[in-house]
Structures are given as structure tokens and as C-alpha cells.
Design a protein that fits this description.
The chain is built from 11 helices and 9 strands. It is of the alpha/beta class. The strands form 2 sheets. The protein has a 7-stranded mixed beta sheet, sandwiched between helices. It has a two-stranded antiparallel sheet with strand order 8-9. α2 runs antiparallel to α8 and α9 packs parallel to α11. The chain is globular.
Length: 358
């Protein structure tokens, strides 16, 4: 299946999946909203658990479906996808495998989960640079470049092709955090050594469903020292003592999945596959463009960009006050107002926000 091609009427499907959402949530960069199919799957799982009939086989099927769905969405083989629970934990797996003295290049203002695992190792050399200068700052001593595809604070999109080329020229590995990008921005994990995406934002999944891709040539760079029984080739056949045989591919780096988040992720990913990344991107960027144009007409300067994350740096205090009074939900990272429309958002949400500020 082509994950970039819509397979059904886009707006009708969104209307059905988000019929019960209270208008005004323009805060996907903090947390996405689950579609109806995801809420229903979670309710079924909770009800059976509460009734004393937890569906363990169903949980396992959902975990497999989530892994497969994520792989299809980003266009890699499912064997390249490991399960994680947090971005910091997955980055930490990479950080722990680096040799002492290795140089890591990262963006100076990136999300802490991408940077802190490297900063937490005193024997690594962490070098920080402006986002626009990352590719130019790669040097022969660089062992790894780590960067978010889209920045959490302001939505700026990294020049990933330039970073990849610069890293390849010196033999450095690459780590890309897709948490603020995958779902609306096409990213090919096959082009990078490691990619990590937590699903609770643009994949509209629950907290705790996180995915790590490991390129085949990069497997030997990681240690299975953190592997548990779930990373075994046959997890249920060897739950005691040392794991006799680790799973092939990236699955050997699996963290034991929390079942309910992956039950939700399987359902949410099925919606994104039904919609197609290209259609989601067009929807999100059209709403963001409408918002940026409207803000500019009101004399409110927002950062330019081709991202559904719209940032108003250091706005007047009446901006968040009026948005709140109008029922618009947003966030305020780094002394800014951040608005981020996604699947559940409509033109009416954008117009409500703009009318509140006019």
C-alpha cells in the first residue's frame, strides 16, 4: 500500500473520526487527539481487563499491528522497527553504545530528550550548534549527528538531506527524532542510522507507544545489554535466565511494550494509513497557512515556515488571554504562543482563533 495516497474521502473520514471533539484544540505539538476508532479500541481493552478477562492475545496482535502500521507509514520493513516507550530511553540506547570520547553534534535548542542522554555521559563530547548550521558544523571528528526533524518549540524543519550528506562524508552516524514530524512530514528512516518517533503527538496515539528504527548496517553499533525477554526470538518460550537467542533485526532492541498504548497506536496508525501522509500534510499545512496569513494581517509576527507548528515569539500578553477566552487550546514554550492544527482541526478553529485576536 502507498502510505502517501489517500484511500477514502478525506474530509468525510475525519468528520466521522472526530465528530465528538470540542472545537478549539490547536495544540497537537503538545498532545494529539485520538480518533474514534482509537478511543473505542481502548475502551474495549479496558472493559475486558476490568471484567477480569484481559485479552492478552489481542494485546499481542495490537503490538504487532502497531509495529507493522508504523513500518508501512514510514516505508521500511517491520524488521527495522523496535518498540520503545520514550524518546529519551531510545536515544539513551544509542548514547550508551558510543565509545568514550566520541563527539556528538546536536542542535543547541533541541528538545531535551534528544540531547540529555548524550549530556548525561561525561565521557562524551557534546557539541551544540544553531539548527541552520548543523550540516556545516559536521567535521571529521564527529561520530554522531542527532537532531529533531521538526523543532518542538517553533516548528522549524531541519535540512535533513544536507545533514545526512555531511555526516556521510565523514562517516558519522545520524539520529533523527521524528516525534514532531512523522505523520505529516514524509521521512524515510532508511536514510538514517536511527530514527525515533513517540506517537502521542502527530500519530494521535497514547503516551507510551514509541518507535525506534535501526538501519541494518547500524545494528552492530548498538548493544543488546538493555534487552529483556521480549527481545528474544520467541519471547514467550524463554522468559527465565539469559535469552538464548535474540530476535533478528531491530526487534532485538525492543523494550517490553505497555499494552494499552500500543492497542491505541494500532488503531490510530490504521487511520493515518487510510488517510495517507500526503493528504494529512496538505490538510495540516493549509490550516497553518491560513493561520499565518491571518496573524500577519493582524500585525502579529509569527515565524515563517512550512510546518503545521505556528509560533508567535514573545507575543503581547493579550494574545494568550484572548485565545483562552475564545476556547482555543495552545501552548507557550520558550516565551511564545504555539498553535498546531492537525487531523481534528478545521477552518472554523482557525477562524475562531483569528477572530479572538482581531
Amino acid at each position: 500500500m502507498d502510505a502517501t495516497a489517500p484511500t477514502t474521502d478525506f474530509q468525510d473520514l475525519l468528520a466521522a473520526e472526530y465528530a465528538g471533539v470540542v472545537p478549539g484544540w490547536l495544540n497537537t505539538a503538545t498532545h494529539g487527539l485520538p480518533p474514534a476508532r482509537t478511543a473505542a479500541a481502548l475502551r474495549r481493552a479496558l472493559d475486558s481487563w476490568a471484567a477480569g478477562r484481559p485479552d492478552l492475545d489481542g494485546y499481542e496482535e495490537a503490538v504487532a499491528a502497531a509495529r507493522s502500521g508504523y513500518a508501512r507509514l514510514v516505508g521500511v520493513d517491520a524488521a527495522r522497527v523496535a518498540l520503545a516507550s520514550t524518546v529519551a530511553g531510545a536515544v539513551g540506547l544509542v548514547a550508551a553504545a558510543l565509545p568514550a570520547g566520541a563527539e556528538v553534534l546536536a542542535y543547541e535548542g533541541d528538545f531535551s530528550s534528544v540531547v540529555q542522554p548524550f549530556a548525561g555521559r561525561a565521557d562524551l563530547r557534546l557539541r551544540l550548534a544553531p539548527l541552520e548550521a548543523i550540516a556545516d558544523q559536521v567535521r571529521p571528528s564527529t561520530a554522531l549527528v542527532a537532531v529533531s526533524a521538526a523543532q518542538s518549540a517553533d516548528g522549524r524543519v531541519a535540512d535533513l538531506p544536507a545533514i545526512r550528506a555531511a555526516a556521510a562524508a565523514v562517516g558519522a552516524r545520524t539520529l533523527v527524532d521524528g516525534t514532531q514530524a512523522v505523520g505529516w512530514l514524509p521521512i524515510d528512516p532508511g536514510q538514517y542510522d536511527f530514527t525515533i518517533t513517540h506517537g502521542y503527538k502527530w500519530l494521535v496515539s497514547p503516551h507510551g507507544a514509541c518507535f525506534l528504527t535501526v538501519a541494518e548496517h547500524a545494528e552492530q553499533a548498538l548493544s543488546p545489554a538493555f534487552a529483556g525477554w521480549y527481545a528474544a526470538e520467541d519471547p514467550w518460550a524463554g522468559t527465565y535466565g539469559p535469552v538464548a537467542r535474540l530476535a533478528p533485526g531491530a526487534r532485538r532492541f525492543d523494550a517490553r511494550p505497555a499494552y494499552l498504548p500500543f492497542v491505541g497506536a494500532a488503531a490510530s496508525l490504521s487511520l493515518l494509513l487510510d488517510l495517507g501522509v500526503a493528504a494529512v500534510r496538505a490538510h495540516d499545512l493549509a490550516l497553518a497557512a491560513r493561520l499565518r496569513t491571518g496573524l500577519a494581517s493582524l500585525g502579529l509576527a509569527c515565524l515563517p515556515g512550512d510546518s503545521p507548528i505556528v509560533s508567535l515569539p514573545s507575543p503581547p500578553p493579550w494574545v494568550p488571554e484572548r485565545l483562552t477566552a475564545a476556547g482555543i487550546r495552545f501552548s507557550t514554550p520558550a516565551d511564545s504562543v504555539r498553535l498546531s492544527p492537525h487531523l481534528h482541526s478545521t477552518q472554523a478553529d482557525i477562524d475562531t482563533a483569528l477572530n479572538a485576536l482581531s
